[in-house]
Every structure is written in structure tokens, then in C-alpha cells.
Design a protein that fits this description.
Structural class: mainly alpha
Number of helices: 5
Number of strands: 0
Distance between the termini: 56 Å
Strand content: under 5%
């Protein structure tokens, strides 16, 4: 397992851990695990399965094509330069100078995390307070 695959694995484990710390409630929304009265285990298992499949697929893709993490940002750089440089030139530059690629992935991860936080915070945890009925 190369370094990129290992980083991908640990990011996947981190996402699974965060999803476990804020599990879904049965009536919608998400609560911190220590504040949760009930947890929708079926929804949590589905979320975990999706993240596990995506992480496994990405790790496998990185084994098949180790330069995948370079090629993805290069597509965006190619579109940004509007064809002024060929894709091969951009890929060659990315292999020599990885600072743009690293910056791209940091921005992508931060934007993805912010989007996930915004989606999870926009869903209310409970529509009514929990009341024990007799």
C-alpha cells in the first residue's frame, strides 16, 4: 500500500468516526452521540457502507493508477487554462511541482467538509422535545 492509499484509508476512517460521533436520529437530523436519546442504526449503517465503498473504490483506483491523484487536478487546471497548454504538459508540470496539486486537494477536502457540515446542520435534530409517555 503506497502513501496515497494509506492517507485515503485514514481519511475514510476519520469520516466514519465523525459519522459515528454525530449519528442520525430516527425522526431526521443528527445529534452528538452523548446527547442522542435514540439513534437510527439502519441509516447510520447505510451511511457507513457508502463511505466504506467509496474509500475502498478510491484505494483500489489508486493501486491501478498511482498518478490518479495528479490527474484529477490536472483536468481542472487544463479547463482553467482553456487549452493554452496540453494536458500532458500540465501533468508533467504537476509531477515536477506538486504544490499546486497539494493546494488543490486541501481546498477540495475543506470545501467537502464544509458542505457536509452545512448539510448536517441544516437538518433539525428533533421537531419536538423528547417526552416520555405513560
Amino acid at each position: 500500500m503506497n502513501r496515497t492509499q494509506l492517507i485515503t484509508l485514514w481519511v475514510g476512517i476519520g469520516v466514519l468516526l465523525l459519522m459515528g460521533l454525530w449519528p442520525p436520529a430516527p425522526r431526521g437530523g443528527y445529534d452528538f452521540i452523548l446527547d442522542a436519546i435514540r439513534v437510527s442504526l439502519s441509516r447510520l449503517c447505510i451511511e457507513w457502507a457508502i463511505v466504506a465503498m467509496l474509500t475502498g473504490g478510491l484505494i483500489y483506483s489508486l493501486r491501478v493508477d498511482p498518478d490518479l491523484m495528479l490527474k484529477i487536478p490536472c483536468v481542472f487546471f487544463y479547463l482553467r487554462y482553456s487549452g493554452k497548454q496540453s494536458f500532458e504538459e500540465i501533468l508533467k508540470d504537476a509531477k515536477e511541482n506538486k504544490t499546486n496539486v497539494v493546494a488543490f486537494w486541501w481546498v477540495a477536502v475543506i470545501l467537502l467538509l464544509l458542505a457536509l457540515i452545512a448539510v448536517r446542520l441544516s437538518i433539525p435534530a428533533r421537531s419536538a422535545p423528547f417526552i416520555l409517555s405513560r
